Amino acid sequence: MHPFPSAATSPGSAAPGTLRVLTGADAPALLRLCERDPVANLFVSARVLGLLSRPGTDLGGQVWGWFEGGELVSACWAGANLVPIEATPAALDAFAAQARAQGRRCSSLVGPAETVLALWQRLEPHWRGVREVRARQPLMVCDGEPDVPADPAVRRATLRELDLVVPACVAMFTEEIGYAPAPPDGGGAYRARVAELVSTGRSFVRVDPGPAGPEVVFKAELGAVSPKVVQVQGVWVPPHRRGEGLASPGMAAVVRAARAEGVDVVSLYVNDYNAKALAAYRRVGFREVGTFATVLF
């Protein structure tokens, strides 16, 4: 579903304390809302910027807007993920009511921990089948040059390497989420998503010779991108190559590549129990600026 379906209501015409689905005309107001915390709200602002750059693109969700006194004060992306944006308690009540009325269509709730956990508190009595609540995921940024040398072997992946990159992405997803996103060949939709990241220069890899031929030994993607802030996702080193010090230099290479294109802030979020990953990111120069939470279904 298009995230800004047509509606008769014009921006600013909603009554105080009301919720409605946003339209394309609301995009500037939504971007201003996201700019209150450009790192925490990057997922949504990146989607909106993508919409504006490619009119008519289906980005897979709606955006619910909460208005007070005719002003957009909170929002919630409602697609494969449910993502609250600057949500007030009143807005959370409205978003929860809307989500309950529609029924669960998302695979996760994700975003700033305080609002995600408050939204989940409102939904938990009605939505069953939760697999895991990750209540503390440090949100980290690197806004300077990396503190460690970049791995010169880490580079942008090419479409010719898709048959190497897709299995690495599937392995990372399965390890992180607990189930495979698609069959071992990657599946059509999942493969297409990986191909999009590769073709747009957002997939980074190190490929080394392996016993059975070339293999990806480090990978990361820029999962969300705006002109000044990007979010790194899918960082992965295969189990048999862990402990060799590949992660920190690999992340340094990703940070340098992003900053070379004018990005001010490289961000990511990580599970608090992943001590090795946290240590690797801190070595690069990442620091905590907030906390995310994720509820997985």
Give the count of helical stretches.
8
Name the helix and strand elements from N-terminus to C-terminus, one letter apiece: EHHEEEHEHEEHHEEEHEHE
Query: Low-confidence parts lasting 5 or more residues at pLDDT below 50?
Result: 5-15
Helix/sheet category: alpha+beta
Strand order of the largest sheet: 1-2-3-4-5-12-6-11-10-9-8-7
Helix content class: 25-40%
Calculate Rg over CA atoms.
20 Å
- The CATH class assignment of the largest domain is Alpha Beta
Ends apart, CA distance between termini: 21 Å
Q: Which of globular, elongated, flat, extended, rod-shaped describes the shape?
A: globular
Counted up, domains total: 2
Describe the structure.
This protein is α+β, with helices and mostly antiparallel strands. It has 2 domains: 113 residues, Aminopeptidase; 137 residues, Aminopeptidase (3-Layer(aba) Sandwich). Helix content is 33%, strand content 30%. It has 8 helices and 12 strands. The chain has a 12-stranded mixed β-sheet with strand order 1-2-3-4-5-12-6-11-10-9-8-7, with helices on both faces. Helix 3 crosses helix 4, helix 5 packs across helix 6 and helix 7 crosses helix 8. About 4% of the residues have low confidence.
